[in-house]
Every structure is written in structure tokens, then in C-alpha cells.
Specification:
It is a multi-pass membrane protein. By secondary structure, this protein is an all-alpha fold. The protein has one domain (2-25, 65-461). It has helices at 2-12, 16-33, 65-78, 80-98, 101-113, 120-135, 141-154, 159-176, 181-190, 199-226, 234-240, 254-277, 281-298, 302-316, 318-336, 340-351, 356-370, 377-394, 399-413, 421-430, 434-461, and strands at 37-38, 41-44, 47-50, 56-57. A hairpin with a 2-residue loop joins strand 2 (41-44) and strand 3 (47-50).
């Protein structure tokens, strides 16, 4: 009954692109309702900062009907560097996935750790969290969920345990975000901060986030190990019991190991280039293209097979990449209509007497809610940071704190809102309903919110 109701709810839920079209249309309407205005800006220590007290009204620039639809291609062009980075990373991962390196590598790892039983949970979650904070592992988690479920069941746990090991492991890293190009990288680029700067404090907060996630999964696994009826997906486990088998040894070849090594070295090389030479998304994209081609050749796909796999990988990542460009269209409309500075001015006036500690929490809450409508970290960063950064400048709040508020608000809601294609796709593969997932994850989400709010408060106190 509950599942049928959820299915009906999902059918009525607007498509993400439909939501973006509605928001762009509202943005166009705002160019008539909100007075146009501008701040003067100045360059200071490499940052383009808003000059306080210089806001003034200008001639109205209302958007026309066709401007709503021009916002889509203009948004894609404006966010092109990031859009194509997402495509090319997806293509590189598509190549490695085609070689079987991911599946066989994870299976081999699971078998090696099999004797350690419960230690498989934290080790697996740590590995996926590293992928989460280094390359922003997101859509790719769906690939690994079936493997996680098989391993969890073979150890006496359930599908919820296996799913949580993968999705919450990656989500912990995504939330930590120290080297995540899709969220922190984009937000810091918009905020004109050095990419991945401030990673030290983020790393400390990440450790607490990861510990909370691992503890949640392990406590749940322990409870159902002793009493199967406590499983949130007990009925599913009864139905699937006949299909539970111990994972057989799969052939993890030296070629596949070499493919994984190529990808790992590429990630390390990109991080080195960012910190040493200030590389941007273009350089990182080029390196992933090269890595993908090398992995395809090593993996035995041949040149034609390599590019076929690249196209498949790009196709799988299409949803997320296009959301970035479409979300950027919202800012295109507001910028062309000259109303962004008016919004910034109004919010700054409203918040000028509010303590900075409260402003940061409000920013965090706003980013959290906006992720329901824009379930893309890059898209949300491109949409909201042009507004949040000037507000932080006017209120003398460090831009790193503004990025932190965005990062945490976006990432936590990724494992909560049903508009997240990654979350809903993962649950569909695992045969877990959305309501069952909420029953499992809600306590952890509260803990994560508390950790993040405390982290932002500490950052404010120490002048992060």
C-alpha cells in the first residue's frame, strides 16, 4: 500500500528540467517586479568584491518571452567548462567500467576482506568516501550497489546494509568535499578562491561525518544480525532469500588492475596540478580523456571500443551535466535583467543586524532547501554563489564560510530529497522504497546537520 502511494507521488512529481524551466520563468518575471540596480565592484587581492554603499537603481531590463528559452543555451555556454568536465569524466569512467575493472576489483576486495566480516563495513565506506571527496563519486555509486548487497547478505546482513555501505560511504566523502571538483571546486571558482583551499578544516569535519555514517551502518547491521525481524527491509529479505549466494571468485586481471591504477594516478596528478600550477577544469578534463584512452587500450577494448565506451559513459552522465547548464540559465536571466544586485542589497539590509553565526546557518538552510529544486551540486553552485558571495562581502563574512555553507547544505540533502536521480536510482536498483530509506537514514541526517553547524560555527570563531 505504501509503495503504491509512493509510486503515485513520484508520477506527479515534476521532472527536474521542468522545475528548472519553472524557476527560469519566475526569474524572468522577477526582472519586471524587482527594480534593476547595481553595485560598484573593485578588485582586491585577486577577488572582485562588491563595494558597500554603492548600490544604485538603473533602467529596467525586463526579460522577453524568448529570453526564457535562450537562457538554456546561454547557460550551457556560460557553464561550458564545468559541463564538459562532467561529460569527459563520465566518459573516462565509462571506459574503465566497460573493462570490468570496477566490478571485478570491488568483488576481489570484498573477498579479501571477507574473513574480517564486520570490518568490511568501515573499510568499504572509507574507500567510497575517498572517491566521494576526491572525484565527487555520485552517479557511479549505482554500479556498486548490487555488489554491496550481495556481500552484505553473504555476511548475514540485509539489502539496506549493503546499500548504505555504498551510498553513505560516497555521501560522507561528498559531504567532506575536500577535493570535490563538482561542488567545492565550482563554488570556489565562482567565489574567486584558490581551488580546494581550506581543505584542512574540511578534513577534520569530514572525519566526524564519516565516523557518524559508519557507526550508523554498523549499529544497524549488528541489530539485524541478532534479530532478522528488526530489518527495515525484512519482507524483501524473505522474498530474496533464495537468491543469496556467497560471491564466487571473479577473474580480476592485471589489465583491470592497471586500468584502476591509471585512474588513481590521474586523480593524484590532477590534485598535484591544482595545488602546484593552479590548473582549472580544462586541464583536468584533458587528463581524464588521456587516462580513459590509456585505460581502454590497456583493458583490451581497442580504439573503437574505447570511444564507444566513452560515449556510453557520457550518456550515463547526461542528466547531471545538462542540469548544470540549465541551472546556470537562471543566473543568466537575473544577470541580464540587472536584478541580482537588488536581491543582494535587499538581503544584506535584512541581515545586517543579524549575527554572522546566524547568517551562516541561514545560508546553509537555504542551500539545503534549494537542492530539492536543483539536485546538482555544480548547478546549485553556479546558481546561488553569485548571490551569496556578494552578501558575504557586504556582511564581512569570509567567502570560505559561504562555500562551506553551500557545500554542506547541498551534500546532506542529496541523500534525502526524492528529486535526486542518484538516490532514487540507487533505491530502485536495491528494491528499497523511499519511505524505508527515510526510516533508516533520518537519525544520521540530524547528526550530520549538527556536525556541520558546529563545524561552521568553529570556522567562524577561528576566522577560517
Amino acid at each position: 500500500m505504501i509503495k503504491e502511494k509512493m509510486n503515485k507521488l513520484n508520477l506527479k512529481m515534476p521532472h527536474t528540467y521542468a522545475l528548472l524551466l519553472i524557476i527560469i520563468s519566475l526569474a524572468a518575471l522577477m526582472t519586471y517586479l524587482i527594480p534593476a540596480g547595481e553595485y560598484k565592484r573593485q578588485k582586491k587581492e585577486g577577488e572582485t568584491q562588491v563595494v558597500s554603499g554603492t548600490y544604485h537603481h538603473i533602467e529596467q531590463h525586463g526579460a522577453h518571452f524568448l529570453d526564457i528559452f535562450r537562457a538554456f543555451p546561454e547557460g550551457l555556454i556560460s557553464g561550458g567548462e564545468i559541463v564538459f568536465y562532467i561529460f569527459l569524466v563520465g566518459g573516462a569512467f565509462g571506459i574503465v567500467h566497460k573493462t570490468g575493472a570496477f566490478e571485478n576489483g570491488v568483488n576481489k576486495m570484498m573477498q579479501v576482506l571477507g574473513a574480517y566480516k564486520v570490518l568490511m563495513i568501515p573499510i568499504t565506506m572509507i574507500i567510497f568516501s575517498i572517491l566521494g571527496f576526491s572525484i565527487g563519486l555520485a552517479e557511479e555509486t549505482i554500479i556498486f550497489v548490487p555488489i554491496g548487497i550481495i556481500i552484505a547478505r553473504s555476511l548475514g546482513y540485509d539489502a539496506m546494509t549493503g546499500t548504505a555501505m555504498i551510498i553513505l560511504g560516497a555521501a560522507s566523502g561528498f559531504l567532506g568535499g575536500m577535493l570535490n571538483p563538482f561542488t567545492v571546486g565550482v563554488a570556489q571558482t565562482v567565489a574567486e578562491l584558490p581551488m580546494f583551499s581550506g581543505w584542512g578544516l574540511r578534513s577534520i569535519i569530514y572525519i566526524f561525518i564519516l565516523i557518524a555514517a559508519i557507526s550508523t551502518v554498523m549499529l544497524y547491521a549488528r541489530s539485524i544480525k541478532h534479530d532478522k525481524t528488526k530489518s527495515i527491509v525484512y519482507e524483501l529479505e524473505q522474498k530474496e532469500r533464495a537468491d543469496v549466494e556467497t560471491q564466487s571468485t571473479l577473474n580480476f586481471s592485471k589489465r583491470q588492475l592497471s586500468c584502476l591504477i591509471v585512474i588513481v594516478l590521474t586523480i593524484v596528478f590532477n590534485i598535484f596540478g591544482i595545488f602546484m600550477y593552479g590548473w582549472s577544469f580544462n586541464q583536468m578534463s584533458a587528463n581524464f580523456v588521456l587516462a580513459g584512452i590509456i585505460a581502454g587500450i590497456i583493458g583490451g577494448l581497442g580504439l573503437n571500443g574505447t570511444f564507444d565506451a566513452m560515449i556510453e559513459g557520457m550518456r550515463d552522465i547526461l542528466f547531471g551535466a545538462m542540469v548544470v547548464g540549465f541551472a546556470k540559465g537562471i543566473v543568466v536571466i537575473l544577470e541580464d535583467g540587472k536584478v541580482i544586485d537588488t536581491i543582494v542589497h535587499s538581503m544584506a539590509m535584512l541581515l545586517e543586524s543579524v549575527p554572522a553565526s546566524i547568517v551562516i546557518i541561514l545560508m546553509f538552510g537555504l542551500q539545503f532547501l534549494l537542492n530539492f529544486f536543483i539536485p546538482s551540486g555544480s548547478g546549485q553552485a553556479l546558481t546561488t554563489m553569485p548571490i551569496m558571495v556578494p552578501i558575504s562581502d557586504l556582511l564581512n563574512i569570509n567567502r570560505q564560510l559561504t562555500v562551506l555553507a553551500f557545500q554542506y547544505g547541498d551534500a546532506i540533502s542529496n541523500v534525502l530529497f526524492p528529486t535526486s536521480a542518484i538516490l532514487m536510482g540507487t533505491l530502485a536498483v536495491a528494491k528499497i522504497s523511499y519511505t524505508q530509506w527515510l526510516k533508516f537514514v533520518w537519525k544520521l541526517l540530524i547528526v550530520w546537520v549538527i556536525i556541520c553547524c558546529l563545524g561552521m560555527s568553529i570556522a567562524l570563531i577561528i576566522g577560517y
